[in-house]
Amino acid sequence: MKLKISEPFWQVVGLGALAGMRSTAAPAIASHILSHHQSRQLDHSPLQFMQSKNVALALKVLAVGEVIGDKLPSTPNRIKRSSIGFRMLSGALAGASVYKAIGGKAAMGALIGGASALASTFGSFYLRKGAVKTSHVMDPLVGAIEDALVIGSGIELANAA
């Protein structure tokens, strides 16, 4: 099936935003899309692995693990320096893969995805903390709502491709 990405900028912004909320979500969604819509632009590219159905499956398993791990009290805050870096790399990988797949510049996709992930990391962190504080709902439940938002948005992004 041919890859049809009509709004790559906004789709990569969306993937980056999801990376800021759940770091493994963006590569899992991008790999899912690319494994179902192969692009010759990725052939012989360092990003070719993102088209593999096995990679897509492995990334989905990691994403499920992250959803579970997010609820543990020992999980560090997403605004910890190492977490921020990983989320930015995650958004950058997803963005670079999508941009390269459509024949664009991988570096531009990486920049957009990484910057979106950075903004979303802080925005979603403070939004979640504020929601817990003002609603008096337990943090894991607010986290589950955040998970539902990430999953629903990811499905929509995948269906838009």
Automatic annotation (TrEMBL):
InterPro entries: DUF4126. Residues 12-152 form the DUF4126 domain. This is DUF4126 domain-containing protein. It comes from Mucilaginibacter dorajii.
